[in-house]
Specification:
Blueprint (H helix, E strand, L loop, with lengths): L10 H6 L7 E4 L2 E4 L5 H20 L3 E5 L3 E3 L2 E3 L3 E5 L21 E3 L8 H10 L1
Antiparallel strand pairs: 1-2, 3-6, 4-5, 6-7
């Protein structure tokens, strides 16, 4: 019997899949699930998000989005924190923040977890 290799996953097919917990990312035609955040990671992510949000409130030039799916350049990634300039935030017909962000963040923050590949994280940051 001849085995047929599985077709590579397309970005369109990946985006139709249900979300996973923790989030999965689409990189180089593969679905890669992020590690489960643990205490120190979660605390640092919360504090960074809080401090950045507080700083942008006084002068609303940007907004902070923790764990936001960003799909662009053939990838779909979920940075720990994504920051977008206010003028670049996608809007729906009502002027509210859109659900889909099909563009690169202006600033990406990744918190490296102990079991996470440094290479993968650096590649995601450089991709942004």
């Amino acid at each position: 019997m001849v085995q047929v290799p599985p077709k590579p996953l397309t970005l369109e097919a990946f985006l139709k899949l249900p979300e996973t917990k923790p989030a999965s990312e689409y990189i180089d035609r593969e679905m890669i699930q992020k590690p489960i955040p643990q205490g120190k990671h979660s605390l640092l992510q919360r504090e960074l998000s809080f401090v950045l949000t507080a700083n942008f409130r006084s002068e609303p030039t940007a907004q902070v989005f923790p764990e936001l799916r960003c799909t662009f350049g053939g990838r779909s990634i979920v940075p720990d924190i994504a920051v977008f300039r206010a003028s670049r935030i996608p809007r729906d017909r009502n002027g509210d923040v859109a659900n889909a962000f099909n563009l690169a963040p202006d600033w990406t923050i990744e918190i490296l977890s102990p079991n996470q590949s440094q290479t993968k994280v650096i590649r995601n940051v450089l991709h942004c």
